[in-house]
Structures are given as C-alpha cells and as structure tokens.
Amino acid sequence: PSYGRYNRNKSLSENINLPNSLLSRFDLMFLILDTADIDRDMALARHVTFVHQNEGTKKPEGGDEEIGNNSEEDEEESS
C-alpha cells in the first residue's frame, strides 16, 4: 500500500495507488489485512530466524516425534 500501511478511510484504489483503468482488469481482488500485534510479530520473527539459523543441521534422534506424544508401547519400553 501507499505509505506502507493500509488506510481504512481510503478506497482500495487510493491505497494501492494504481489507476482505476488498471484495477478494472481484475475480476476479483482479495484484501488481506495484518493487524499489528507486537508480541505475535516478535514470536513469528523469532521462529523464522531460528528456522533459518538451524537450516541444514541434523535433527536429534527421534526428532520427528512431538514432545509429550509417546504411545503406550514407548512408555513400556522405557521402563
């Protein structure tokens, strides 16, 4: 959007800053708005950074399993 943020008080064409003649060529337009949430945005940024920093590292043994989802057989084997 123009000026980096979508302004709900302006029309779609004003926010996108494209002429109506060009916008009229599209049959459908979907508007997806991201509400600013500092905690959620920081959590997402940390996750993306972690994934890229650890890309290509070997997973620990059993890394495909989720923590806390052991079956009864796994519990019997470990006891």
Features:
about 80 residues, mainly alpha, elongated, disordered C terminus
Question: Mind sketching the topology for me?
Answer:
Layout: H1 12-16, H2 20-23, H3 38-53, H4 72-78
Give an overview in words.
The protein is mostly helical. The protein has four helices and no strands. The relative contact order is 0.07. Mean pLDDT is 76; it is low at 63-79.
Summarize the structure.
By secondary structure, the protein is an all-alpha fold. The chain has helices at 12-16, 20-23, 38-53, 72-78. It contains four helices and no strands.
Helix count equals: 4
Q: What proportion of the residues is helical, as a percent range?
A: 40-55%
Average predicted local confidence, pLDDT: 76
Radius of gyration: 23 Å
Which regions are unreliable across 5 or more consecutive residues at pLDDT < 50?
63-79
* Estimated structural class: mainly alpha
Distance between the termini: 59 Å
* Oligomeric state of the chains present here: single chain
**Element pattern in H and E:** HHHH
Shape: elongated
How many strands, what sense, and barrel or not for the largest sheet?
none
Strand content: under 5%
Strand element count: 0
